[in-house]
Amino acid sequence: MADKARLSLNQMTTANWSVAQAVDGCVRHGVPAIALWRHKIQDAGIDACVRLTRDAGLHVSSVCRGGMFPAPAEQERRKKIEDNLRAADEAAALGADSLVMVVGGCAGIDLDDARKMVADGVAALVPYARERGVRIGLEPLHPMYAADRSVLNTIGQALEMASYYTANEVGVILDTFHIWWDPRVTELIAQAAGRIYGFHVSDWLNPLPDVLLGRGLMGDGVIDNPGLRALVEQAGYSGPIEVEIFNQALWDADPDAVLAQVIERFEKFV
Amino acid sequence: MADKARLSLNQMTTANWSVAQAVDGCVRHGVPAIALWRHKIQDAGIDACVRLTRDAGLHVSSVCRGGMFPAPAEQERRKKIEDNLRAADEAAALGADSLVMVVGGCAGIDLDDARKMVADGVAALVPYARERGVRIGLEPLHPMYAADRSVLNTIGQALEMASYYTANEVGVILDTFHIWWDPRVTELIAQAAGRIYGFHVSDWLNPLPDVLLGRGLMGDGVIDNPGLRALVEQAGYSGPIEVEIFNQALWDADPDAVLAQVIERFEKFV
């Protein structure tokens, strides 16, 4: 159903591959775009990553991830913001569509305070990113990650946070795993028009095998990926569609076979 | 912080106790109210349950649970509605504050269709319940249960569904485990004024040990139970506060010791 020309391999789907291996995999399988993770970028070095993706003609749909702003101590929060500036440098060097924000959880911090720290962190990051032409993509994460990963949990909340900036500075990343359940998903995706910086797909397995590493391949779960894709396209988004699957069984398998399966499922179930 | 006079033992917290044992436990520990589960009611027989709670002078804060409406086949859906009528009979016999709805998940059914089936199921149940003086308490469950347990996932959605009925017919059950993460929780609890039929507490452990059986005792996790209690009380609710903890470790422990600990945590962390 979805055109492979829209596919982007989010590197965590084949977590055991280095940047060089993932780039090579995309080339061999005819996947035109890739999303790189920062720990993998560190391993390879940013210059090598720029050269590898450019030489392969791969589009970089996103750099994952900035964010993780909340911390009890002021000094620690400053350090986290500093790290986000480095992430913006990397996104700029790679020409990525956006720098994805996983904003951080509230464990050890009052929930409202954590949300304020996120707003402050984004405010500190935007001017720096703007100068470098880097757009900030706020990704609402499923509410089950509010304690440990992200206090940004709905599209509505992400749009509110983005509203303080222009549509070229801050937008949203819509991942079907995180948003599929939302009773307001139809109206909220429509409201996101002009601010959708990325679209991610996977599936929700039932029962959920693991809170973090239990995402499924499209077609194996309950998510209506084609329906959500239609809403996102009605809202004007026509960019890359990242397949981002955190799944221990996929990580234990041969990444080359996983990528082949990802493509098959993408064409059938997205 | 909370007064024990407000405490209700939700029977699933001491899942290995029969109704007779749970009633006896409440009496010995000075807990004035109890919430009964239907499979335990079946085991004991409804007449015995009525006699046991009445003789013990225990208030029945709720009967858990009706709902589970969605099903692919019409005949199956009718059977489920029929079962809800029996649940209303039990709630009436026990003089429960409400019959709690865990409305059912969407696995095997389109999400929008499942939500319509829930609305239809509630519509079929309300007239019968009204005649018997039974109030229907819609409990929004955490979004991580949308596939397997409940497509009703936010307070806003529950209030919308309740709005078709009077405030004496259909209301909401607010459980901190399910709602704590919601960025709109403050405004939504205020909007629920006059329709709050029950308030449940437990805690969200970080990391979450298990999707279903990983709830924690109050004080062991990230939830601001006193803050949410204050919001619920500002909205006018002054009824029983149920402690409902699905936790394998607690179930494996001595129920009597668990109840003592529940009381201690209730007075300290709610």
Question: Tags for this entry?
Answer:
TIM Barrel, two-stranded antiparallel ribbon, alpha/beta, 270 residues, eight-stranded parallel barrel, homodimer
Describe this structure in words.
Two copies of one chain form a homodimer. The first copy, chain A, contains eleven helices and ten strands. Chain A is an alpha/beta fold and 270 residues long. The first copy, chain A, is globular and about 45 Å long. The first copy, chain A, has a single domain (43-239), classed as Divalent-metal-dependent TIM barrel enzymes (TIM Barrel), CATH 3.20.20. In chain A, the strands form two sheets. Chain A has an eight-stranded parallel β-barrel with strand order 1-2-3-4-5-6-7-10, surrounded by seven helices. In chain A, 53% of the residues are buried. The longest helix of chain A has 21 residues, at 74-94. In chain A, helix 4 packs parallel to helix 5 (111-131). The interface between A and B is medium-sized, with 30 and 30 residues.
